[in-house]
Amino acid sequence: MSQPLSYLLDGVIGVQSGFEDQQISEMTLDSRAVIGGYLFVAMNGSQEHGLKYAQKAEQSGAVAVIWEYVDGIDVPELSIPLIAIKNLPASLGGIAARLYDYSNQPLQIVGITGTDGKTSVSHFLAQAMNASGGSCAVIGTLGIGNPNALEKATHTTPDVISVHKNLQRLSQRGSRCVAMEVSSHALDQQRVAGVNFDVAILTNLTRDHLDYHGTVEAYAEAKAKLFLEHRPKSAVLNLNDDFGLLLAEKLSGSDVTVVPYVIGDASDYTETTLVASSANYNHRGLSAVVSYKNQNYSLGASVLGDFNLSNLMATLGAMISLGYDIDVAIDAVTKVATVSGRIERVALNEHQDFLTVADYAHTPGALESVLSALRVHCSAKLICVFGCGGDRDAGKRPLMAAVAERLADVVIVTDDNPRTENPVDIMSDITAGFEHPEAVIIEHDRSAAIKLAVQQANTGDVVLIAGKGHEQAQLIGGVEYPFDDREQIRQALATMEAAA
Question: Where is each Mur ligase central domain found (predicted)?
């Protein structure tokens, strides 16, 4: 449904009246996508200004151009409205929200942020709500749409125009809730501006993305915007995390309803805190007792690891915030399944006497979480295969080595996604973090490293292949090669079975 340009820009600071009004059917940041009826949005990029492509956009059918004002830039002459807007990123979300209005088919929107667990919580929530008769879609790392029929995504959180367009599209398709992963980059770059969140969830906060944010403090400040600037109706906060405790304190007494969750002893917390205790773990999944408002409930699910227990608790908190009775929420959560590439059990059959797992863990905190989580499933050796991506935060490489050495019994270091970096240099950064590098196995060939790990596993062992999870390609020297850790695990298991 098209909207007048004057309506889209009404109230935007600095927009001068007097431009020729136009009917806008779509808007885009990409001049190559422009056709008739489009509004072209020219942003000031890190390499060049989008205004450079304004004439091309007009030739392709754009009926108007709005652009991010920058002093001294060459402004082309166009026959269509060309409107400068200072601080356009701050206004773009509101403009997109007006064009892609879905208020006649309202959505409940849940934003999930944190260093780890965003994908799992978003999918757990969608699975649980759909199992209880709801209609919940996801927007995140694995894709957009129903969890069982995802369309590919290019970013954890898309650009702000795509966010609003996808929300409208999901609403039109019948979704009544969307669980959206909200990254720190997205919050810093205002990619969720104009989104009204019903619920915001914090999973945790550990070191990540310092190549972008510079400091942990700046990273935390970006994450906090979801709670302190977007002002959701409810905030579901992890009290096992220091940042969760800080946010709970900052939101105390505000108009945001805080729903805390924790793994601990119910006697240490208020009755309105969701508390998981008496946890039990095996090769098939986990179980725990959940305490809430002086009542106890039994929770069980076929997912692995103590951090997934925390993710299940975040899911329960979100469902309660959305109006579900806790007994309905508990029943729905028991039906969730492992999310692709997130502590995913990979096996050829149910008779396998050791556990093989693929996980996306690619930060020190995530690797520590998954290794700690798998230790409770391990009665013998814990074998860890990991590497570090190129062209990313080099400071985390020795930290990941230290984590692996401390928590695993056998460590195999391999290539992850070297991208344009020399894999030898990446490996050198990693091995600097080992106290006993002589005990570590180095194997650059990731396929060979996975095979080596699986083939040395015995009864009661757990093998973790960390770093890529759901990814189906390896990036080497700027080239993308097909590669799936899970398929590599299956091939190694098949080779073992054939040789037995």
Answer: 112-318
> Residue 489 CB: number of other CB atoms within 10 A?
25
pLDDT band of residue 100 (cuts 50, 70, 90) is very high
How many residues in total does the chain contain? Answer: 500
306 annotated as belonging to a binding site for a ligand: no
Element (H, E) at 276: strand 274-282
Collapsed DSSP state (helix, strand, coil) of residue 274: strand
pLDDT tens for 63-95 read 999 999 999 999 999 999 999 999 999 999 999
Is 157 assigned a ligand-binding role in the annotation?
yes
471 appears as a binding residue in the annotation? yes
Q: What is the mean pLDDT of the segment spanning 374-381? A: 93
Residue 445 annotated as lining a ligand binding site = no
> Is 168 within any annotated ligand binding site?
no
Crossing angle of the two packed helices 423-431 and 396-407, in degrees rounded to 10: 60
**CATH homologous superfamily of 108-333:** Mur-like, catalytic domain (3.40.1190.10)
Distance, CA of 300 to CA of 289 (rounded, Å): 9
- Within the chain, all domains assigned CATH 3.90.190.20 are found at 344-499
Residue range(s) in the chain whose domain bears CATH number 3.40.1190.10:
108-333
Q: What tokens were used for 230?
A: 């977007």
* Residue 375 CB coordination number (10 Å): 16
| Res 349: pLDDT | 87
- The annotation status of 116 as a binding-site residue, yes or no, is yes
| Residue 392 assigned ligand-binding role | yes
Does the annotation flag 315 for ligand binding? no
Question: Is 486 one of the annotated binding-site residues?
Answer: no
Determine the Cα–Cα distance for residues 329 and 465; give it in Å rounded to an integer.
Answer: 32
Residue 191 marked as a ligand binder: yes
Residue 312 labelled as part of a binding site: no
Is residue 500's pLDDT more than 60? Answer: yes
Residues 6 or more apart in contact with residue 356 via CB below 8 angstroms? 345, 346, 347, 454, 457, 462, 463, 465, 489, 493
- Domain boundaries 3-99, corresponding CATH code: 3.40.1390.10
Rounded Cα gap, residues 245 and 229, in angstroms: 18
Beta carbons within 8 Å of 480's beta carbon, 6+ residues apart: 473, 474
Q: How far apart are CA 138 and CA 149, in angstroms?
A: 10
What would the two tokens of residue 399 be? 């930290």
Q: Where in the chain is the domain with CATH 3.40.1390.10?
A: 3-99
Judge contact between 119 and 141, C-beta under 8 A: yes
- Kindly report, residue by residue over 385-412, the tens digit of the pLDDT: 999 999 998 999 999 999 999 999 999 9
Q: b/e for 151-175, b at 16 or more Cβ within 10 A?
A: eebeebbbbbbbbbbbbbbbbeeeb
Under CATH, to which class is 344-499 assigned?
alpha beta
User: pLDDT confidence of 366, banded at 50, 70, 90?
Assistant: confident
Amino acid of residue 115: T
